[in-house]
Amino acid sequence: MGFLLVAVGVVLLLSGSWYGLFVSPQERYMGDVQRIMYVHVPTAWNALLLFTFAMGCALMSLWRGGWGWDAHHEALLEGAAVLSALLCVQGAIWARPTWGVWWDWDPRLTTTAVMFLALLGILALRSAVDDPEKRATWSAVATIIAFVDVPIVYFSVRWWNSLHQMQSSPETVSAPFIVPLRLNAFGVLALMGGLALLRARVAARRTARELGPALEPLPAGALVEAR
Amino acid sequence: MSALLLLQVEAASPDGVVQGGWDYVVAAYAISAAVFFFYAVTVVVRLRRAKDVQ
Amino acid sequence: MNVFFAALHKELLLQWRTRARVLSVVVFGATALLLMSFAIGPDAGSLRQYAGGFLWLALLLSSTLTLEASLEAETEQQALEGLLLLPVAPTILFYSKALANTAQLALLGTVLVPVAIVLYGAGTARPLALFGLIVLGAGGLAAPGTLYATMTARARAKQTLLPLLLFPLVVPVLIAATKASSLLILGDPMRQLSAWLTLLVAFCGIYWTLCGLMFGVIVED
């Protein structure tokens, strides 16, 4: 399932990027630089989406329990961290030709940076706690708290920055602009979703090892030999 | 060449359209592809390793 | 309610008994405040302009020390586990601890204000408003700070872990408190102060509720 999704994601991303780079016409105001948006916007959507999924897994892990939720929580946190780091880099590359600076204290870019650091913090917390049960509970709590924080950070940075003019995003409404956006959005989703499923398997195996052989089903031959 | 392109970009044409900038587009796609590729590699490597341990 | 006051009394007593450490945190904060000026240069005008930000950065840096210390006593002899055996709701333990930490941070902030006045000429015509702001900001730092310190006190690498978790989270507090204190120091012709105070109150409201709910989850195991 994981590998299949990754393959689908790669195909979608390749076709979407090809369309965005070579088929879509130049945007009216942004020219060719607009083509960055076809990879930037899907990354942004999916960073938030993966964080939201991670939040869902954190809630389920607290409410229902179960190591599956915890493993997927860890995987999705890591995926969201990768995407938000990539998002900051893409944002800087977009900011340079359009606004003339690498970094702008734009609410979206700043919030992404804060979100990236918050995700790194939660991942660091996970790696610093040895007891699997405490790790699951504590990191789930940290994810919920960080998730609530993201909109507050966004609005506070927006107010803080309100003396500057808000940068307008180029309009992307007509079909040639939407096709690559959609292809890449589902491409990133499939790719990162597939990788998250595979990454969750890694986490689940590690947890099983930490919990010891108690969780492992006894091999069928063992009982017979003991007799 | 890239410095020339940079100059072109910063001096946007009179009608306000950002000119050129392919360098940035290529950089954005290349970095994204590299990040996706290397993250995928690390996940697969860790998965292999987790299987070996068991 | 009596239980709450007993818990609060215990927290404040604990802080009073470790007052030598509080003093060293004050010295740390004052030193940080002094060092900030070297990043700007000796221009009195710009130093005064950034004084609000320096004050909050110094307080934020010091807060990790006090928060860590307030939980250290609980983990040293597994005192927290002992407390949880008492018929006291964990929520009460959290609020007493967070309130004591707020008091300590507010005290620290209040002590740092004269330092900022001497170093940066950061006096204000509305000292009571500044005090209220410091209490609000301290509350915004203390609620998530207490919750995270409870986790990190029992984890590896706690010294780096607490700031790593806390600093991104309190960005709104830092922004709002810095803006509001700059307005108090430099004057507020556009009457923007109340907007920033509202943001702080909202942040405090959300996190005092959320962290109170979550504290029970993280300690019961």
Structure overview:
- The complex is a heterotrimer of chains A (227), B (54) and C (221).
- Chain A is an all-alpha fold and 227 residues long.
- Chain A has a single domain (2-212), classed as Four Helix Bundle (Hemerythrin (Met), subunit A).
- Chain A contains seven helices and no strands.
- In chain A, α1 packs antiparallel against α6 (175-211).
- Chain A is globular, with a radius of gyration of 21 Å.
- The model of chain A is unreliable at 218-227 (pLDDT under 50).
- Chain B has 54 residues and is mainly alpha-helical.
- Chain B has one domain (2-53).
- Helix content of chain B is 76%, strand content 0%.
- Chain B has two helices and no strands.
- Chain B has helices at 2-10, 22-53.
- Chain B starts with a helix and ends with a helix.
- Mean pLDDT of chain B is 76; it is low at 1-14.
- The longest helix of chain C has 33 residues, at 44-76.
- Chain C has one domain.
- Chain C is built from nine helices and no strands.
- With 221 residues, chain C is mainly alpha-helical.
- Chain C is globular, with a radius of gyration of 18 Å.
Helicity range of chain C: over 70%
Strand content of chain B: under 5%
**Could you tell me which chain pair has the largest interface and how many residues each side has?**
A-C, 31 and 35 residues
Low-pLDDT regions of chain B: 1-14
Give the biggest sheet of chain B: none
Radius of gyration of chain B: 20 Å
Output the number of helix runs of chain B: 2
**Structural classification of chain C:** mainly alpha
Based on DSSP secondary structure assignment, what is the total number of beta strands of chain C? 0
Question: Strand pairing plus helix content of chain B: what structural class?
Answer: mainly alpha
Mass-distribution shape of chain C: globular
Give me the strand/helix succession of chain C.
Answer: HHHHHHHHH
Number of strands of chain B: 0
Give the oligomer, counting copies of the same chain as homo and different chains as hetero.
heterotrimer
Strand content of chain C: under 5%
End-to-end Cα distance of chain B: 54 Å
Which stretches of chain C of 5+ consecutive residues score pLDDT under 50?
A: none
Distance between the termini of chain C: 25 Å
**Average pLDDT reading of chain C:** 88
